[in-house]
Design a protein that fits this description.
The chain has 251 residues and is of the alpha+beta class. Helices cover 29% and strands 30% of the residues. β8 and β9 form a beta hairpin.
Length: 251
């Protein structure tokens, strides 16, 4: 009797151990399945984020792109008009900028006809001749010197006229010859000095016989020579005797 009871107790004890082992195996299996499922879902989310995010109510995607509404014919016409207007504005601005650019005045040139020659700018006797190949005496400086022009006697205020057509290239003050005016014709430059005033400005186009200015008081370098017009001709660096170009002159 005691042996039966012992055997029954052993069998009952073994059943409890077996059930416990089975329960543990089932729990481990459940954990493994849960881990695999979680890893699979994670991989899906990483590959296509938002693919599995669904609206619970109707099953549609939560994140859905809002379609761009199609433009009507009127809207398209307005957009085209705006583009054309913008293009026209840019063209007009470019034209305005071009108009604002400073325009250079075309260079003017007056040729000199040496055969035709020149007229003397004043009527008066020669106080000091042209002399570049020998020296002549200067009363004021009390010394002999060369002279690259001629000194023509004239009263203060006498009119000085252009000896030929030309363009005024300079109006300036010179320490030896006072106020001077340079007029260019071709390769020649004609200088009028010892002026009281100049009636022309740089850039003026003048004709033969036009008023250049008026005779003034002589500078301190020629005070003893009296009032006169200093007149010289240069071609480049070379000075030329004005008498060699004169067409006619009253003395």
């Amino acid at each position: 009797m005691k042996r039966k009871n012992s055997l029954s107790n052993l069998i009952a004890g073994n059943k409890k151990v077996y059930l416990s082992i089975c329960a543990c195996l089932l729990a481990v299996y459940a954990l493994l399945i849960a881990g695999i499922t979680s890893a699979t879902n994670k991989n899906k989310l990483e590959k296509n984020p938002g693919e599995d995010i669904k609206n619970v109510a109707d099953g549609s995607d939560i994140f859905k792109a809002t379609p761009t509404p199609a433009l009507s014919d009127d809207d398209k016409s307005k957009e085209n008009d705006a583009n054309v207007s913008s293009s026209n504005t840019e063209v007009n601005e470019n034209k305005d900028n071009e108009n604002k650019q400073p325009t250079k005045e075309p260079a003017r040139k007056v040729d000199f006809n040496r055969e035709k020659g020149i007229v003397m700018p004043v009527n008066g006797k020669v106080l000091m001749k042209y002399s570049m190949d020998h020296t002549i005496y200067n009363k004021t400086l009390c010394q002999y010197m060369v002279n690259d022009g001629v000194l023509l006697q004239a009263n203060v205020g006498s009119s000085v006229v252009a000896c030929c057509d030309g363009i005024v290239t300079n109006v300036y003050e010179d320490i030896r010859h006072g106020k001077c005016v340079d007029v260019q014709a071709g390769d020649y430059v004609f200088t009028y000095g010892q002026l009281k005033s100049a009636d022309v400005s740089k850039g003026d186009l003048i004709k033969e016989g036009n008023l250049v200015g008026n005779v003034g008081e002589p500078s301190k370098y020629y005070s003893k020579e009296g009032s006169h017009l200093y007149f010289s001709v240069h071609k480049g660096d070379e000075s030329i005797n004005p008498d060699s170009l004169v067409r006619s002159r009253e003395s």
